Fold each of these.
Amino acid sequence: MIRSAVLVLGLAGAAMVQAGEAWVFTHVNVVPMATETVLEDRHVFIRAGRIERLVEAAEVAPEALDGYRVIEAQGGWLLPGLGEMHAHIPGHAQQEFAADVLFMYLAHGVTTIRGMLGEPWHLALREAVASGEVPGPRIFTSGPSLNGNSVRSPEDGARMVAEQAAAGYDFLKLHPGLSRETFEAIVATAAVHDIAFSGHVSSAVGVPRALAARQQAIDHLDGYLDALVPRIPDDLTPGFFGFNLVDLVDEARLPGLARATRQQDVWIVPTETIMLNGLSPEPPEVLASRPEMAYLPTELVARWTAAKQSFLGHPAYSPARAERFFELRRTLTAQLHAAGVDLLLGSDSPQFFNAPGFSIVPELETLLAAGLTRFEALQTGTVNVARFFDRADFGTLGEGRVADLVLLDGNPLDDLEPLRRPLGVMLRGDWFDRAALDAGLDEIRNRRREAP
């Protein structure tokens, strides 16, 4: 069942060194992310897939390196691996594409993903990745979506929750269209089976109820613009994430909504780049010509191009309204952050001109635009990811942590650009140098170029 993915990733990872090696990064600057600091000129020792110790380079005798394979960092910067917290993994029918997606994440320092539209094959893929059979980021996956089409009654909702919990999915994914009664059945049954639910907020539910129900995370800021409108006219459809409501928003409601989000400990995954891609006036042909589109199936990019043309041609669309939409979302993100709401890094890739891995830096830049510092933005993809999953073994760089690491040629606390092209990525103790990453990406791009 995983064979196709193994074959493709075997080609992509041909230059990867075998697991089980003992490694040492020499003369590296460590960005631990537990605090906003840099530990300068360290030797970082790795054994059995975990960080063994961090030592000041000046205190290490040459013979202490015996038995370790040396990665000469030459003053580079070492950062914990990143999380893509709104990822999509292609399904069983697209195993080759799934393998490509996993490698593109890996090649950009993404070592953990939260799969937001699961299926049974993803459970097997999750285990294959965890065992090292398939190189790829650590996978947390939802089951198939619970939405207005798949869940037609409260009984349907309760049954699907019980089935997905029994199957071993990590959480439930909510999509729009759920009735209030069905949502309540899902919430009650999820509590019985101790499984979290995340994703969208259905119009019949609304953000206040989703918060009160302790939805684990709300993605895309879904429903937040609706919640800022005192009364939505009966003849007005909110549109794409509230796009049609921007002229009716009462910003005075925002602080209370931010406080309520914090009080209920609900996480937020803004996914701002997909909004910018979809609703900016930038022509779809320009987006389709981005270099990273060459790594994706041509027919997928064509669908996105047609969808964007449809958006721009809609009677409700105007560049001015789009800019107001983006301004409101930046303000929302800023006030949620100021209220202490926990944010997570997620770009919704591969979706709507967001290529896996390539979209991470642009998404971080949207957080900077909302007022976060670089350190705070990087926390959404490192420390916060581990906290969200209640894990202490990754997300920071320290002794005993899993060796999910990204080696950069610049300090990410000063400049995010080095994240676009890491010097190398260590995935649970397996080292992919720049040559291995380039070889894998080249193989994907060349295969796409040769496809009919």
Amino acid sequence: MRDHILKRPPNDHDIVISGNAGAFAQKVAAGYGRRVIEIGKGEETVYRVVAEKQVYDFSSMKGASIEDDLRRRDFTINAMGYDLKSERLIDPVGGGRDLESKTIRLVSNDALNSDPLRMLRAFRFAAELGFRLATETMAVISERSLLITRSAKERISEELFKIMGVERSFPHLRRIFEAGLLTRIIPELEVCSGCLQNDVHGLDVFEHTMATYEEIEEILVDYARFWPNFSDDIADYLNTDRHKVLLKWAALFHDLGKPKTRSVDSNGKTRFIGHEKEGVLIVQKICSRLKMSGQHLSYIALIVGGHLRCLQLFNESKRGNLTSKGIIRFVKEYEDHIIGLLIHSLSDQRAKGGVTHESVCELVDFLKRVFLAYFSDLKPKMHMPRLITGHDLIDCFGLQQSEIIGRLLQKVEEARLGGQVKTKREAIKMAGKLIKLEGDAGIEPAAPSSGGLCSIR
């Protein structure tokens, strides 16, 4: 009824039966040629029928009347019904009024005791519908925030994914923090408050984290403004494998390693050496605790572990020390995930209170250069076959299986991507020179097996 009144197309329907809900669901399922799926146990059993892209959930009425049943629901906007027989709206707790005022209000305070996850659901509905929480509902959630720890971790994770899936979820994430829920769910964030940084940041670790989250949402909504020539490639990446939402998770987690690695050197400069590596270890614990998939954990860890790389390349570029090999190695390591890393890097930089507008513009221009090098040159080359293989090195130079083969292939591949070698003959010749430079000239080559190609040393 909520979605019907708001003119939002619903794809699921909750139907309350005063008699045997299971038997009624069986009749409906038979009419569609479907089967009934039972969810839950005992009085809480829901009988689901999926038909024609619609989901119908049938349940038995709780209490003596439909009004009693509706008063057991979570929020007033979800506690409205429609009597199919009399064709009348049933609204015992003022859900229609709260829809008009765009308010999320608990039906009763007891609703949180029966299912503490409703605290997060309140913010999820507010985010998805563009509503606000009633003052008294916010107060009750704040008072009882500890209850959230009783909820199944996978359900908590699912609700957070839905909240973060909203384009402008930051204000709601801030309110979740203010209610005390965020640090109940992710206590690792608590030590970030008051963890001071250097003047460039201007914020403690927690506030910088929240600012980074806010900035990344701004960039995800308007990335074409920064990189118009690559917007299609970026869109393809962001719309794959939930990368948009996972980048928000990474923004929330990217500096979790800072409190543990914080130090002050002899010059009074605050440092966080190795915080990205420590952060990966913390991310692994959190994602496992929240029952995230291995794929999601791996992606978040990749962004957290590599979130300094773009800024390091940028600083090398400003000092005039960045070579084409530096960019090639970065691109080879991350491939399309450089998109996520570059977006994160810009949001991280924009979230530093002491960074100038000019410095941010310089970073945007640098990231354009990286995008151009990748999409226009390196990515097409990376999809082409390599010029030589390990077998070529064994045949031509009599090498044994060892680490040197991997090193040689990597250096030749970097030269191919950089345009220094273009043919197999040139690649073999370069490998021969590299062997001598590495002090392996004493290795006796095997007899050439490719028509004299390996005679080039």
Amino acid sequence: MLKLLDRYILSRFLKTFLFSITLILLIFIVFDVKDKLTTFTTKPISIKEIIFDYYLMYIPYYGNMFSPLFVFVSVIFFTSKLASNSEFIAILSSGASFKRIMRPYILGAIIIGGSSFVLNHLVLPKAFKKKIAFEDKWINNNYNSEDHNIHKKIGTNRMLYLESYDNRTNIAQKVTLEDVVGNKQTYFLSADNMIWDSIHKSWQLNNVYERFIEVQNRIDTLKNQKPIYKQFNKFYDKKEIKIPFTPSDMWRFESKIETMTYFELKDYIIREKMKGSNRIEFFEVEQYRRSSFPFATFILTIIAVSISSKKVRGGVGLQIALGLLLSCIYIMLMYVFTTIATTGVASPALAVWTPNLIFSCVAVYFYRTAQK
């Protein structure tokens, strides 16, 4: 009896979720096609590219983004139907506890939340690369960086300066590289340009001037015993260098984050910390968000079942409205605390997980007051 009940609730849960998320994605696609129809018809884009390089990547990305919200709405919708038809009361009257009834709901949340977790960390970053490449090629008119006078900290004491950079050709103009130790310049390099060598994973510099500043063993006794520095100058027509800076560092900031898998993002954060980057918080927020967002599926499922298990007058409209209100509050809290984390005011881990902690308390309250 109970195993049959599990299958019944779980199938209703998953079917309602898949139907609602499919419906909203179809609506999104219709509006997106309408918005980009001119681009699709005036440019030589093949149907294959549109389907496989764009929309096939578009669907899992936005489906995963809205999955916690539609899990919430789906659970409220079909559980309210069970309650309004007195099925929920009959199940409780048969001797099944509310805790036991929650089992298939939690199983459904594990399936959806677990899938979202894997998608966030391993699958979607690869899919997003294709989507970004398609958008840059056809929609953003071969997106090119418009930044000028670019400064990058690529080491504890090393700064890189580029007057301009072309991400289509991976060529930087007017390049300087500088090492500063203890407020003293110890190394300086300048070049007319540098070109990325994708085979050797290095930069080819042209018309290079290089200056070394070294401390001599003897001291200047006439000037307050200060060390004596000696300068060495060198010139090269061409010079190959390897530095912790690659074309990927000039990708659009949002693209750089969302196209990295869990392991790539983890390694990147370590390298950026070594460089002393001032954008560590953005990457840490993304790292923690990928785990916290799927976890919200469990919390919202418990709240949804607790709210919608009671039979109320007037149908399911009030329960769905309450569910949507709570969903909006959760999303608002997520964005507020994410913004706080990126400003460095609070720890990224704490800020990203705070909405889940708050809604865990809300879930406990609704669970205790649910119809038993």
